C-alpha cells in the first residue's frame, strides 16, 4: 500500500520515478562554437549578474552554481571539460544525471551543481544538466 501511495505521489508531482536510460556526451567532429558566440539570448534586468566560470571559479567549496556553455571534451569516465565565454572548468557528471539527453560539443547546455575540489583544483559536481 505504501508503494502505491509513493508511486501516485511521484506521478502527480511530475518527478520521474527513475532516470531515463541512456544519454551522455557524444564526441563528434563538430567543434563547439567559439567562446564569444555563447550568449544564450536570455536577457534580464540591467543589474542582474550572469553566472560565468570567471565569477564562480574562486567561490567557496560547496557553493551551488548554475552555468551555461558547452561540454567540449570527455577527459575521464565521468569527467569532462566545460567552457563558457569566460573560460573552462572541469566538471564531474555521473551517468545517472544525463536523464536520457545526448549532448555534443555544439549543444548549449545549462549545468547546476556544487563547486568542489579534486586534486587541488576547483571542479563542479553536476547535479542537473539541460540542453538549451
Order of helices and strands: HEHEEEEEE
Query: Which stretches are poorly predicted, pLDDT < 50 over at least 5 residues?
Result: 44-48
Which whole number gives the mean pLDDT?
Answer: 80
Give me the number of helical elements. 2
Helix content: 10-25%
**Distance linking N and C termini:** 40 Å
* Order of adjacent strands in the largest pleated sheet: 2-3-4-7-6
Largest sheet: 5 strands, mixed, barrel
Proportion of beta-strand residues: 35-45%
Rg result: 17 Å
Q: Which structural category do the helix and sheet elements fall into?
A: mainly beta
Principal-axes shape call = globular
Per DSSP E runs of 2 or more residues, the count of β-strands stands at 7
Please, could you describe this protein's structure?
By secondary structure, the chain is mainly β. The chain has 2 helices and 7 strands; from the N terminus they run H-E-H-E-E-E-E-E-E. The strands form 2 sheets. The protein has a 5-stranded mixed beta barrel. Strands 1-5 form a two-stranded parallel ribbon. The longest helix has 12 residues. The radius of gyration is 17 Å and the shape is globular. About 4% of the residues have low confidence.
Briefly summarize what is shown:
By secondary structure, the chain is mostly beta strands. Helix content is 12%, strand content 36%. The strands form 2 sheets. Strands 2-3-4-7-6 form a 5-stranded mixed barrel. The chain has a two-stranded parallel sheet with strand order 1-5.
Amino acid at each position: 500500500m505504501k508503494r502505491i501511495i509513493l508511486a501516485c505521489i511521484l506521478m502527480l508531482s511530475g518527478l520521474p520515478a527513475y532516470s531515463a536510460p541512456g544519454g551522455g556526451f557524444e564526441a563528434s567532429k563538430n567543434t563547439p562554437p567559439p567562446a564569444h558566440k555563447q550568449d544564450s539570448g536570455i536577457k534580464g534586468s540591467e543589474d542582474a549578474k550572469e553566472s560565468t566560470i570567471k565569477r564562480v571559479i574562486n567561490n567557496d567549496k560547496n557553493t551551488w552554481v548554475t552555468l551555461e556553455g558547452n561540454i567540449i571534451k570527455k577527459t575521464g569516465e565521468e569527467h569532462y571539460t566545460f567552457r563558457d565565454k569566460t573560460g573552462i572548468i572541469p566538471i564531474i557528471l555521473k551517468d545517472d544525471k544525463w536523464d536520457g539527453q545526448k549532448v555534443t560539443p555544439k549543444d548549449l547546455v545549462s549545468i547546476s551543481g556544487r563547486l568542489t575540489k579534486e586534486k587541488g583544483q576547483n571542479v563542479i559536481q553536476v547535479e542537473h544538466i539541460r540542453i538549451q
